[in-house]
Amino acid sequence: MSTTEPASTESASAGHARPRGELRIYLGSAAGVGKTFALLGEGHRRAERGTDTVIAYVETHGRPQTEAQIGDLEVIPRAQIPYRGTFFEEMDLAAVLARAPEVALVDEFAHTNVPGSGHEKRWQDVEELLAAGIDVISAVNIQHLESLNDVVEKITGVPQRETVPDAVVRAADQVELVDMTPEALRRRMAHGNIYRPEKIDAALTNYFRPGNLSALRELALLWLADKVDEGLQRYRAAHDIQGTWEARERVVVALTGGPEGDTLIRRAARIAARSTGGDLLAVHVTRSDGLTGADPAALAGQRRLAEDLDGSYHQVVGENVPQALLDFARAENATQLVLGASRRNWLSSLLTGPGVSLRTIRESGDIDVHIVTHAQMGRGRGLPRRRGGLPLRRRLLGYALAVVLPPLLAVLLAALRGQVNLSSDIILFLAAVVAVALAGGLIPAVLAAVAGSVLLNYYFTPPIHTFTIAEANNALALGIFVAVGLVVSSLVDAAARRSHQAARASAESELLVTTAGSVLRGQHALAAVLTRVREAFGMESVTLLERGAAPGAGWLPVATAGDLPVLTPELADSEVPVTDRLVLALRGRPLPATDRRVLGAFAAYAATALEQERLTAAAEAARPIAEADRMRTALLAAVSHDLRSPLASAKAAVTSLRATDVEWARADHDELLATADESLDKLTHLVDNLLDMSRLQAGALAVFPRPADLAEIVARSLDDIGPSADPVVVAIADDLPEVAVDPGILERVIANLTANALRYSAAGSPPALRGSALRDRVELRVIDRGPGIPAEDWTRMFVPVQRLGDTDNTTGVGLGLALSRGLTEAMGGTLEPEETPGGGLTMTLSLPAAPAPPQYRAADGP
């Protein structure tokens, strides 16, 4: 599966710079699916076609099949970058640029370069190659995409430190999925085609569990499906295709903020669930004509409901609600639109004409519209609220009244000429002008006033049927009539404009409040802000650009929402500076000044969200360092006594033995030697624990697993503990399979757990060690009948350098359980506490079983 973007339309000519290169990315769900293999295969195909192809950087991870795939492709030597007294290998960007091939193969797209390199990230190196006109083929795993980083961590429990912005991958000319089923990938892992043998068991039982791989595969497929959908939307826009292509079922539900919203969302969710992969999109149109009627609290609740049903919430601003709904639905390639039956009663419908539902159905085209009944329909107020902003329908009504009402009134008053005097005629015409002003605004009212003055002069002012006014009082009355009509008309029009402006400000504030709420609630605040900007202003894409700190540095997209990111401010249709180094760039249409004011607030939101994300990332990066510092501080504080006591004892014993002025008896001499020996053993054990803990934290502990008999390891562990007041009960079956562990490390773990059990077991209730097999695991339970530990403290008891108040600080530094769990996990096992029935604590040690040796059948005799 792959997606292809339109190739660059630039062409190189003699004497001109090469056009920008094309980027092709192989996307995988996990390590080992074959991305690098596919990358090298494409490189060979290009080279066989005569294309100048080189390997700029390929990481084989020691896999023989991948190394063999390199073949005779030209390899650019790597750069040696010094860092902290050691040299690290990185892609030699300068050498690749100097070589100037047509195609460069660059593996590990999300890789973080060693400090001292030209760029912080390898994808930035790739950007420079593309700018130089070199086509690049690269590879990346789905867990390295910034938007999915936290999702992958929740699934696998492993944080990903190396990430790449989604916008950079989405901007690639081609993205091709390298897919493999979880079962096939685990077989590759078990056969040793991905990791070294000593890492296979740990990988299969942790990161490469079937559930993890299935979830990662689904993420990769869904992300690429969205990428394909973006390409489809661009194709439809480029070819002016207005109809809906039902490639995937998308259901849009329109929300008014009324009480019926929950019913509509649930109904739309059921419609979307009828087809696999159906999308649910909830949208609220913020009207700028004052008739919003939205309850912010209700909208917030409906937003949460839509998101709980795996849908998304959107908000747009539109003068014409049906048109805004349909524009949004067509932009999202929606197939169905769900609306609620009108809440207006019959009188409102009679006075205001067709509602949103009927107008939407009339203009929906090939989008299916569902009108859903609900308990609130027909329960609106009898008369609609006064609208502002004078929409087109109101203005047309005003012009119609200005043309029709004065002549009709003239005919009526002419029939009553003997019963109504001129003053009454003027008052009635003035009322007609006010009615026209209320309906259509200033210009129709002015036309009605002029027409009324002419009709009054010709038909009702003596001498009638002439435009001559005989009396000055009549002329004054007609003048006052025209003046009052103009004043009333202007006041009505000004009120309508003020109402429109107030409604616009209300819509803008509602939009900003909604955006602020999404920023506060969401984990990807910056993406939420850019998405809101794109939807609210109807843009094709919105990009936050950042200029590099170096003088003359170019612009880089920090984040984007939409189809295609804007790479420089000059290419944007509208751009708003945020800071000296940040610009919000929009592609789609130029924005008027009124919208740019609101856009400035969104730009400030975006800058704040970016800073928040970077501070969060910095805090996450600093957390291991702070934890290590805390550990060092705690260790130094804890070992102050534990080191001093055995040192002091050993020192005193040796000093006494070396004393020349004292003649020690043989028994005293032996006792001093035993004291020194015991103190040095304690010191050695303490130092070994400290060193192992530091190796565990640094990931440098060497583990050499091999098949071993659990009963033999347990026996050696008990010998290390020595004699005790209560014997340890050991119950391990003879037919228990061997375990794949490092025997020396497991011996230390069992000895530590057994010593703890002996220390806290009640007198006369010796601890027990029981072994059992469970599928491909072997479990050893260390059971004591002591006071036990409350379940809420089970997690904390594995934290180094604490004792949960179980003993004083003179009996150890509190590393035992933390070290035991760390050593167990390093061997691919687990160590979990359980409550002993009847009281006490059981530590369950789960270890991988060694594979059974192959059974060979004797050959048949002659």
Task: Put the structure in a nutshell.
The chain has 24 helices and 25 strands. It is an alpha/beta fold and 862 residues long.
Structure commentary:
This protein has 862 residues and is of the alpha/beta class. 48% of the residues lie in helices and 16% in strands. It is built from 24 helices and 25 strands. The strands form six sheets. The chain has a seven-stranded mixed sheet with strand order 1-9-2-8-7-3-4, with helices on both faces. Strands 12-11-10-13-14 form a five-stranded parallel sheet, sandwiched between helices. α10 (261-273) links the parallel β10 and β11 (279-287). α23 (743-760) packs antiparallel against α24 (816-826). The chain is elongated, with a radius of gyration of 40 Å. The two termini are 57 Å apart. The model is unreliable at 4-16, 379-389, 803-814 and 855-862 (pLDDT under 50).
Task: List the SSEs and their pairings.
Layout (H helix, E strand, L loop, with lengths): L1 E3 L18 E6 L6 H14 L4 E5 L6 H7 L3 E2 L3 E5 L2 E5 L2 H7 L3 E4 L15 H10 L3 E7 L7 H8 L9 H5 L3 E5 L3 H9 L6 H9 L4 H29 L11 E6 L5 H13 L5 E9 L8 H13 L3 E7 L2 H11 L4 E5 L5 H7 L3 H8 L4 E5 L19 H24 L6 H19 L1 H19 L11 H50 L3 H13 L3 E7 L7 E8 L11 E4 L4 E6 L5 H66 L7 H33 L7 E3 L1 H12 L7 E4 L6 E3 L1 H18 L7 E7 L2 E7 L32 H11 L3 E6 L5 E8 L14
